[in-house]
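[Discussion] Sanity-checking designs against the backbone

I'm trying to build intuition for which residues belong where. Below is a structure token string of 344 positions. I'd appreciate it if someone posts a full sequence so I can compare it with mine line by line.
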């Protein structure tokens, strides 16, 4: 290993003074330079120079229009590297241009941040989410077995006359089990798919960070914010079995009941579906009459009913003229407040 390091240092030396491992490189002259020799090299005014860190050597591409020139700048308007002749032309006269090394470092920093976020934060979270899938499956199977066992015990007491009912309820459990498993499978597929995308993105970023291809850097679009949001978790209301005392005339009712399987997906963050403007000076409270209508109060003695499109459907004014202190909506659509006496 030490011999390899010595060989590497011997191979990379300053072209002017033979100092090993030079930190600088002239990307036009294609020579390595130590810090002490940079000034001497720049003093040669017979040709242009472009000094940059050794690790970024090769960053300046050849101009596709002027073959003897190299591109020291990037036209951010056209998103292409440009040489001095391109800069002087009318084509890029009013365009915004940046030093290609400055632009490269500017683009490199967020890419490195993306890579760190993916490797240190996002990818581990997906791995933890993937690990929970087998546990969820085991829990589903365990609860399913418990439910079936309870049904079998009831079936032993009721004997043959309830076999048909028992079989029907087992099928219902299996259907709910299948629904639950299907939900978990979809969740796993979403997680594994995103893990695959993250893995590929990490590999692509690593390869991209090792290259000096300005074209590839300019095409890079971050997906980190997209990956930060994990697929929505779901909450399951598990079915339960409630046994009853056996009554031959009311067998079906006395076997018990299975609650329905309820799968609710939970969002990591609240989602804004719509924004509704009201005539209230300050909205102090809101009561939903339905999924599409809501009562509001605040700032005056009027309570207003709006739909989600912001249309005023109805209003109520207190007889006393005082501002209502609270309100609630009953099933029969009656608005109640702490202020008695309301004019419709």
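Best answer:
Here's mine. Compare freely.
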């Amino acid at each position: 290993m030490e011999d390899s390091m010595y060989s590497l240092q011997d191979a990379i030396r300053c072209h002017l003074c033979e100092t090993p491992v030079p930190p600088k490189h002239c990307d036009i002259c294609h020579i390595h330079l130590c810090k002490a020799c940079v000034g001497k090299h720049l003093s040669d005014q017979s040709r242009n120079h472009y000094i940059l860190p050794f690790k970024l050597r090769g960053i300046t591409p050849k101009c596709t229009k002027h073959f003897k020139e190299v591109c020291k700048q990037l036209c951010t308007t056209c998103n292409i590297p440009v040489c001095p002749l391109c800069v002087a032309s009318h084509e890029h006269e009013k365009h915004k241009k940046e030093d290609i090394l400055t632009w490269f470092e500017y683009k490199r920093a967020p890419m490195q941040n993306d890579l760190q976020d993916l490797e240190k934060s996002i990818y581990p979270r997906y791995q933890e989410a993937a690990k929970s899938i087998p546990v969820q499956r085991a829990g589903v199977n365990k609860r399913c077995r418990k439910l079936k066992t309870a049904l079998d015990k009831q079936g032993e007491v009721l004997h043959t006359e309830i076999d048909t009912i028992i079989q029907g309820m087992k099928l219902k459990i299996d259907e709910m089990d299948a629904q639950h498993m299907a939900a978990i499978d979809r969740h796993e597929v979403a997680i594994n798919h995103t893990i695959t995308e993250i893995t590929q993105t990490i590999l692509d970023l690593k390869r991209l960070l090792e290259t000096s291809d300005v074209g590839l850097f300019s095409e890079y679009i971050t997906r980190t914010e997209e990956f930060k949001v994990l697929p929505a978790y779901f909450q399951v209301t598990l079915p339960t079995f409630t046994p009853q005392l056996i009554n031959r005339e009311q067998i079906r009712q006395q076997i018990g009941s299975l609650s329905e399987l309820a799968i609710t997906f939970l969002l990591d963050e609240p989602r804004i579906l719509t924004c509704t403007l009201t005539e209230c000076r300050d909205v102090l409270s809101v009561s939903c009459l339905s999924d599409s209508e809501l009562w509001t109060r605040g700032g005056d003695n009027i309570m207003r009913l709006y739909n989600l499109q912001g249309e005023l459907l109805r209003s109520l004014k207190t007889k006393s003229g005082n501002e209502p202190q609270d309100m609630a909506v009953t099933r029969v659509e009656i608005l109640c407040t702490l202020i008695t006496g309301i004019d419709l």
